[in-house]
Amino acid sequence: MTTPAFETIIEPFRIHSVEPLRPTTPEQRRAALAEAGFNLFQLDSADVLIDLLTDSGTGAMSRDQWAAIQHGDESYAGSPSYYLFRDAVRELFPFDHVIPTHQGRAAEKIIFSVLGGPGKVVPNNTHFDTTRANVEYTGAEAVDLPISEARDPRGDHPFKGNMDVAALDALLAERAADVPVVFVTITNNSGGGQPVSLANLREIRAVCDAYGKPLFLDACRFAENAWFIREREPGQAGRDVVDIVRDIAALADGMTMSAKKDPMGNIGGWLAMNDAELARQCRAVLILTEGFPTYGGLAGRDLEALAQGLREAVDHHYLRYRIRSTGYLGEALVRAGVPVLTPSGGHAVYLDARALLSHLSPLEYPGQSLAVALYEAGGVRSCEIGTVMFGRRPDGSEHPAALDLVRLAIPRRTYTQSHIDYVIEVCLHVAKHASELPGYRIVDEPPQLRHFTARFEPLR
Ligand SMILES: Cc1ncc(COP(=O)(O)O)c(C=O)c1O
Predict the structure, then answer these.
(1) Among 145, 173, 321, 409, which residue has the fewest nearby CB atoms (within 10 Å)?
(2) According to DSSP H, which parts of 386-436 are helical?
(3) Does residue 104 have its Cβ closer than 6 Å to ligand 1?
(4) 106 CA closest ligand 1 atom index
């Protein structure tokens, strides 16, 4: 008997410790929704069955990460846990200065308080919500420059996360003096978890060089992005993901990072760069807001867990499973005719709420309505990425976002295939009843990042 190459891609781990899931009734979920002001961020997680709100900090740590935690050295200054962490970061991103932060937005807050300010403009392929908020909080302008294909939910461009390089060039030609830094988000979370190609990064680098501008990565999902490059970019097949990541890093001058994503942490982040003077200014802010530069808002044990998580993040068995299992969910929905953003992202599948709930206008928040319905129907928590998240402008006006999406984000190594089969069933049920779903209006909202705490009411 010859042994075939079996096609089933299995979870490359077995379960070592389990957490119970508590089913609820539709009546309990309706009561929870009313209590939460129809905002899924306001639900108690105990009332959620399958939690796809975010892949951020929600993954399962490995046996080796838990073991690493026992090595944590909690010295205030110069802890060996910091050096282990710094070296693990530099294995992949060999920047001179590595500054730990408690999570990604802390790194953003620090870099933009140094580089931002009124009159400045920061280009990005697409700013994530906290990135945009941190830019705008300083009085600077956050400009998204995705390629035009990114706006087509059903196109099959392999690198929909790419930046429109001509638009970047035009912005710099007009306002070079106002641009302190160019950012690229890999993968592009708010643009559907889509990857950025090495070729695009090289072109962006060339434009940055032409205008003498630093290029920074928002690199939360760097390993997933590198895997997509390996799978989709001509000339990259078969390469080690570590080498691809190093190629990406070599094109940049620095990075912000939420270590709650690909580095497999439940908390953590960092800021890294080559510019010593910029690093000095960032460390000065870090000491005010986060902590001493060798721990920066994290415990020594967290730094140890991240050093180990970074090694696991670039494992090919893991990445093959990770990208395939997200694709499995996306493909099942496409097969059933549910409008989803294609190709599937690395960490999430995005339902096209504007298309599915075409009876609602964007300002009636179709994404919010769909997300509420998925929870009500099956206890599945998702996240609106659309007009609720991005519709309010700094001047107070409200406009439809480019797309109204609902993100089903997959926590790393947490749910099994049968959990995902259940999610598919819930999505199909809700899609069948989509035309009955109501619009929503906001009855209370804060001035920034309103999606976290706003309260809603269904429109009757
Ligand atoms: C692309 C991107 N940048 C920045 C952040 C912010 O990171 P954190 O949640 O750790 O503050 C996130 C979080 O989801 C993200 O997806």
Answers:
(1) 173
(2) 387-390, 417-432
(3) yes
(4) 11
For residue 107, which atom of ligand 1 is closest to its CA? 11
Contact criterion met (CB below 8 Å) for 412 and 332: no
Q: What is the pLDDT of residue 206?
A: 98
Q: Half-sphere exposure of 209 toward its Cβ, with a 13 Å CA cutoff? A: 8
Residues with Cβ within 8 Å of residue 156, at least 6 apart in sequence: 342, 343
Q: Whose CA is nearest to atom 14 of ligand 1?
A: 56
Measured distance CA(88)–CA(365) in Å, rounded: 42
Q: Give residue-wise pLDDT tens across range 308-340.
A: 999 999 999 999 999 999 999 999 999 999 999
Among 101, 112, 128, 271, which residue has the most ligand 1 atoms within 8 Å of its CB, making it the best to mutate? 128
Closest CA to 411 of 46, 44, 53: 53
Task: Check pocket membership of 269 for ligand 1, CB cut-off 6 A.
Answer: yes
How do residues 415-429 score in pLDDT, each as one tens digit? 999 999 999 999 999
Q: What is the pLDDT of residue 449?
A: 86
The tokens describing 369, both together, are: 């309505």
Per-residue model confidence (pLDDT) at position 128: 92
C-alpha pair distances (Å), 18 with each of 15, 21, 51, 78, 414 = 7, 9, 15, 36, 10
Respond yes or no on whether the N-terminal peptide bond of residue 180 is cis (omega within 30° of 0). no
In whole angstroms, what is the distance from residue 128 CA to residue 133 CA?
9
Tell how far the Cα of 128 is from the centroid of ligand 1, in angstroms: 7
Element (H, E) at 409: strand 405-409
Which pair of structure tokens corresponds to residue 438?
């109501």
Q: Is the CB of 298 under 6 A from ligand 1?
A: no
Residue 393, pLDDT score: 85
Task: Note the pLDDT of residue 8.
Answer: 87
pLDDT at 402 over 90: no
- DSSP strand E in 55-195: where? 97-101, 121-124, 141-144, 182-185
Cβ 218 under 6 angstroms from ligand 1: yes
Distance in Å, CA 130 to ligand 1 centroid? 7
Band of the pLDDT at 268, cuts 50, 70, 90? very high
pLDDT in tens, 279-296: 999 999 999 999 999 999
pLDDT given for residue 221 in this prediction? 98
Among 106, 16, 13, CA closest to 325: 13
